[in-house]
């Protein structure tokens, strides 16, 4: 058991520090490590749990919890989750602590100002990449635009939006009698 | 809105946000972790923590977003850690991360258990696609709000658009984009500040 948990740490902890730009970036490498190298699961199972992790709330990196579960049950899921989040969190903790201790350095101000446009460009790119990889149709695009509009016009929170979407899509499905897209 | 705790903050630092209880902090992030689909966690963090609760300001959000995006790690987790630290120090960061991850961790394990039964119903796929599309809408909205607040100079606009094109259209990997864009952009900001001081 301990051996299995250690091998989960050995696979996921380095991936944590390689996940530039978030969890999406390490998915191909994760598939290679867990499917081809460790044989923890086959390619189809990996695709299945990938879809599932995209549907669940929270960070998509939580796919590691499902892989950990496959390998060593609940403890495996917990170990994999800690292994993927802890190293990157410690790095961010260290850097932002240094940050706040040096508030007046001109370099710090330049870093603050300089990072902002890069982060904004990447932030815009995220949704486009998701829409493209999901082969979104007109209904999805209308949903995306509609949600933007609702957020602009109202103070709707995540609960209202999510339950509205579930009700709307379930109703559409019931009316059409099959998947409308 | 919850009542704000009694003001114990010395008058000489009025910019400091009100002190937030750790339990309050935990449940705010827990709530968001429960209902944020389709990669939209940061956007809901913005709407809830910055706009509604005012626990941190816009500047903190943009700084956190920059760091969360550029450093490795899941962006929502990095963002929660950063905001939690801004609000209540290191312990606050830990509480915020556990709050944002815990509900998703439980739900994904439950979904994993029920997966083979759920996947038999096509309506499940359909509703999940709708939730993902709405998450994309939330992200777009927040991206527009953040972009609107950037200082509007030619360099920022060109840099933002180029990074977007490189990532979304050319699908270049993250490491080279960051390795080229970040030093350029920081270098420009440093030079621009020095020029402004000398003038």
Distance between the termini of chain A: 45 Å
Mean pLDDT, all residues of chain A: 84
- Spans of chain A of at least 5 consecutive residues whose pLDDT stays below 50 are none
Residue share in β-strands of chain B: under 5%
Distance between the termini of chain B: 47 Å
Radius of gyration of chain B: 20 Å
| Biggest beta-sheet profile of chain A | none
How many individual helices of chain A? 7
Biggest sheet architecture of chain B: none
Bulk shape of chain A = flat
Q: What percent strand of chain A?
A: under 5%
Q: What is the count of distinct domains of chain B? A: 2
Overall 3D form of chain B: globular
Radius of gyration of chain A (CA) equals: 20 Å
Helix content of chain B: over 70%
How many beta strands in the DSSP annotation of chain A? 0
Uncertain spans of chain B: 6-15
Q: How would you briefly describe this protein structure?
A:
The complex is a heterodimer of chains A (about 180) and B (about 200). By secondary structure, chain A is mainly α. Chain A has a domain at about 1-100.
